[in-house]
Amino acid sequence: MAFSSRSGGQIRTQTALAEINITPLVDVVLVLLLIFMLTAPVLQSGVEVAIPKTRSVNQLTEERMVVTIDKDQNIFLQDKPINVNDLTTRLKTDVGGKDPAKRVIYLRADEQVPFGAFASVMDAVKRAGITNISIVTRPLEGK
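Above: the chain sequence. Below: its structure as tokens.
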């Protein structure tokens, strides 16, 4: 679209800038895409565990402390390896002024973990004063 104006006997033609520069928009979108691609795998727990399947599974999205037992009976607090003997004291120090009885812990264990190893971790968590323990499972496929 062209505009004409007369000033001092001369006719000047001005064109309106009707094009939008989308280069900055593309740059921002690509940076956001890159950030999401890099952070998405970090959001999941880093310890591979084949958790058992059950019929009743509740979807919980809250951020909580996770204790994991892998198939080799290695124990992890969040994603860091820990000795079962140190688990009680570590859980007591991570309370951060909260009442341990009101804290909730997620316990993830591989299907192949013997009950004795599972029970010793449960005992360590209970000795820390935490009584609300949620056992992580995955839903059964089909009916």
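The chain has two domains: 2-43, 53-139.
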